[in-house]
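Page 42, continued from yesterday. The earlier attempt failed because a stray header line got pasted into the input along with the sequence. Redoing it now with the clean sequence only.
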Amino acid sequence: MQRRRGEELDSAIRTAVLGLLAEHGPAGVTMEAVAAAARTSKPVLYRRWPDAATLLRDTLLRIATTAIPHDDRGSYREDMLSVLRGWAALFTGPDAAVLRAAVAATAQDQQLSEAFRNDVIGWRKKEMAALLSRGIARGDVRPDVPVEIARELGQSVLWHRLLITGDPITDELVVQLVDEVLVPFVAPRRS
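This time it went through. Structure tokens are written below.
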């Protein structure tokens, strides 16, 4: 086996995890299978993750945290364009099949379901609440906005298209969602 370290090894491991998940579901993501697919050893994996479930959760969370921007763009509109464009790129890119497989697998795997909800979706909820708080502080989001709805409104359309309808996820859709649905929904009300 060739000796790889750092980002090169990490990338090979995570690529192996995603490939196994897409091909075999979460049951196919074992330390042995990941080690073989990544051309590394099980001890290398166990030094970083206690088990395959933790490795899978960590990989899914990393996809979400690296693919979905969460930095301040200066306005609610620009923040949401950035976030939804991140989701759109993820949902139309090479990891789209893996995401569908992961979501489908959550129906049969309670641990994966809890991890996905707590780690991936939980992280997103916190980030969206922070985004809305920034908008309230700037004055481009009304203080009484229902955060539980506003934080999921735009993303839900994209998830629905990815998982249910298969309708296209385009930049035009993202802009339309932001300008015609999200901005009016959160905008301060005139007295």
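Notes: The mean pLDDT is 91.
Reminder to self: strip header lines before submitting.
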